[in-house]
TrEMBL record:
The gene is fdhE. GO terms for biological process: protein maturation. Residues 189-226 form the FdhE central domain. Keywords: Cytoplasm. PANTHER family: PROTEIN FDHE. It comes from Acetobacter oryzoeni. Residues 20-175 form the FdhE N-terminal domain. InterPro entries: FdhE-like_sf, FdhE_C, FdhE_central, FdhE_N, Formate_DH_accessory. This is Formate dehydrogenase accessory protein FdhE. The lineage of its organism: Bacteria, Pseudomonadati, Pseudomonadota, Alphaproteobacteria, Acetobacterales. GO terms for cellular component: cytosol.
Length: 306
C-alpha cells in the first residue's frame, strides 16, 4: 500500500545529483489527514476511554482541516508573513495580531467544533475567551513570545492550533515568494516563522537519511545536518536513546554539552509517523531521559511546558 505522505517526492526529471533543499513546505491537507489518523491510532493503542486527550486532539486536528478549506485572504497572508520572526516586543506583537482577523475567527471556529467533546465548564470558559478579543490577543502574543505560563493550558492548545493553521496557510499560499537560497544555514528556529521545532525527522525515500526539523507553528521542515546538536551546535557528546530496539522509529537525541534533548522520528523506518502525535505518544522516553538530567528542547503545541 502506498504511504500517505505529505513530503512531495523530488522531481525526477532533473538529471544529476540533487541539491539538498533547505526547506520542505507543508502540504497541509496531507499533514492534517495523517496527524488525525495517528492520534486516533495512538488513542486506541493507549486504550484511551471516550473523552481522552488523544481523541480530543484528533477532533481539534479534524477542525483545523476544515479551516484549511477556507483559504486566507491576501491581506491576512501579507500581515502574517510580515510578523517579525524573532525579537518582537510583546506589546508590538499584540498590536500586529489584533489587526489579523483570521486567527481570531479560527479560534472561535475551533472552540465551536471541539465544544461537544470537552466538559461543559471548559466549553463555557473557552467561549468566554473568544468573546474578549483584546485579552485573547494578549494570550496569543504571550504564546508566540514563549511565555507559556501566562496562558491557561486548555486555552493554549486551541489558541496555538488556531494560530498554526493560519501561519501554515500563509506559508503555503506565499511559498513562491520565500527565497530558499537565503535560508540555507544552521537555523535553530524555523526560517519561515521563527518558531521552535517539534522534533527532528530523518527522511526516507529519495531523501534517505537527511534530517529536517519540523516547525511547531507553520509546519515547514528545514534542513539541518545530522551529528550536531540542534540546540547548541556541538557534536562531541551526542547520544541516541531507544527502548530495546535499535531500529525503533521514535528515538531521542541528547547533547551532553548543553544537556538538552529532542525527539528524532525515523520516517525512514516508519513513514506514517507524525511529529506532534508521535512525540506526544512516546512520553515514556522523555521521562527516562529527563531522569538522566536532560531538559527538553523544542516545543510540542499539544503539550506546553510548565
Ligand atoms: Zn515555521
Ligand atoms: Zn547541545
Amino acid at each position: 500500500m502506498r504511504s500517505e505522505t505529505d513530503i512531495v517526492p523530488l522531481d525526477k526529471r532533473t538529471p544529476g545529483v540533487q541539491a539538498i533543499e533547505p526547506l520542505i513546505f507543508p502540504v497541509l491537507e496531507a499533514v492534517y489527514t495523517r496527524r488525525e489518523k495517528r492520534l486516533r491510532l495512538l488513542a486506541e493503542q493507549l486504550g484511551e476511554a471516550e473523552g481522552g486527550y488523544f481523541k480530543f486532539l484528533s477532533y481539534l486536528v479534524e477542525a483545523q482541516q476544515i479551516l484549511k478549506h477556507m483559504p486566507l485572504g491576501a491581506a491576512d497572508v501579507s500581515a502574517i508573513r510580515a510578523v517579525p520572526k524573532q525579537g518582537c516586543d510583546q506589546d508590538h506583537l499584540e498590536k500586529l495580531l489584533l489587526e489579523i482577523p483570521s486567527w481570531q475567527q479560527a479560534f472561535l471556529f475551533l472552540v465551536q467544533q471541539v465544544g461537544c467533546v470537552v466538559p461543559e465548564t471548559t466549553r463555557t470558559m473557552l467561549e468566554k475567551c473568544g468573546q474578549d478579543i483584546p485579552d485573547l490577543t494578549k494570550q496569543a502574543a504571550s504564546l508566540l513570545c514563549g511565555e507559556y505560563a501566562q496562558v491557561d493550558a486548555g486555552v493554549a492548545v486551541i489558541l496555538w492550533a488556531a494560530l498554526s493553521v493560519c501561519w501554515a496557510q500563509a506559508v503555503e499560499q506565499d511559498q513562491k515568494h520565500i527565497q530558499q537560497e537565503q535560508l540555507v544555514g544552521e537555523a535553530r528556529v524555523c526560517p519561515c516563522c521563527g518558531a521552535q521545532p517539534v522534533a527532528s525527522l530523518v527522511l526516507g525515500g529519495d531523501r534517505e537519511g537527511l534530517r529536517y526539523l519540523q516547525c511547531s507553528l507553520c509546519e515547514t521542515r528545514w534542513h539541518r545536518v545530522r551529528s550536531i546538536c540542534v540546540e547548541c551546535g556541538a557534536s562531541a557528546h551526542l547520544e541516541h536513546w531507544v527502548f530495546e530496539d535499535l531500529k525503533a522509529p521514535v528515538q531521542i537525541e541528547s547533547c551532553g554539552d548543553c544537556k538538552t534533548y529532542l525527539k528524532v522520528l525515523r520516517l525512514d523506518y516508519d513513514p506514517e509517523l507524525d511529529a506532534l502525535a508521535d512525540d506526544l505518544g512516546s512520553f515514556a522516553l522523555d521521562t527516562a531521559v529527563e531522569q538522566q538530567g536532560f531538559a527538553r528542547a523544542g516545543l510540542n503545541p499539544f503539550s506546553f511546558p510548565g
